[in-house]
Amino acid sequence: MKRIFDFLSKFIQKNVDADHQAIATATDSNLSHMSAIAIDQMSTSSFGVNLICGFEGKRLLAYDDGVGVWSIGFGTTLYPNGIKVKKGDSCTESQAKAYMTHDLKRFETIVNNRVTVPLNQNQFDALVSLAYNIGATAFSQSTLVKKLNADDRHGAAQQFDVWINAGGKRMQGLVNRRQAEKSLFLK
């Protein structure tokens, strides 16, 4: 499992480094515009990747997440080509890593676009983990995001505790995950 986390961390860092290289080689007229965009966009740290992967686990055969949503790899529900994961699907370890990398970018974008107040790295990682687990729409419309954007960080942190049910049932795995995310958010 550690090799997977290390691979994902290196892969994400490589992409971040490539983005930084592209900015560095841009023409002078575009450089200030591109830099402003890059500064506003945060990426998940290796600690955040490890947190998400640790809670999601790795499964190379599609599985029902407990509420009728089919997932594969590290919790991927939608392939990069837009097709939903379905019963009977399988993937290789390298495909699972690629799906995770794709998913992370999508959820990083959601957090970057929906949260309007400055975040530290721990807060960003906790929010990406939450969004990854509850989905883009639920995250975007959540009271947590509303409180955070109103600069009520304490109120936002308390909202992690709301997301502990699946299919109307309290799930200990979600309780544990939310506690870890909340603790990270408050660091």
From TrEMBL:
Protein name: Lysozyme
Native source species: Acinetobacter albensis
Known EC number: 3.2.1.17
Principal EC category: hydrolase
Pfam family, one: Phage_lysozyme
Source lineage: Bacteria, Pseudomonadati, Pseudomonadota, Gammaproteobacteria, Moraxellales
Entry superkingdom: Bacteria
Keywords, in A-Z order: Antimicrobial, Bacteriolytic enzyme, Glycosidase, Host cytoplasm, Hydrolase
UniProt xrefs under HAMAP family: ENDOLYSIN_T4
Stated family: Belongs to the glycosyl hydrolase 24 family.
Catalysed transformations (reactions): Hydrolysis of (1->4)-beta-linkages between N-acetylmuramic acid and N-acetyl-D-glucosamine residues in a peptidoglycan and between N-acetyl-D-glucosamine residues in chitodextrins
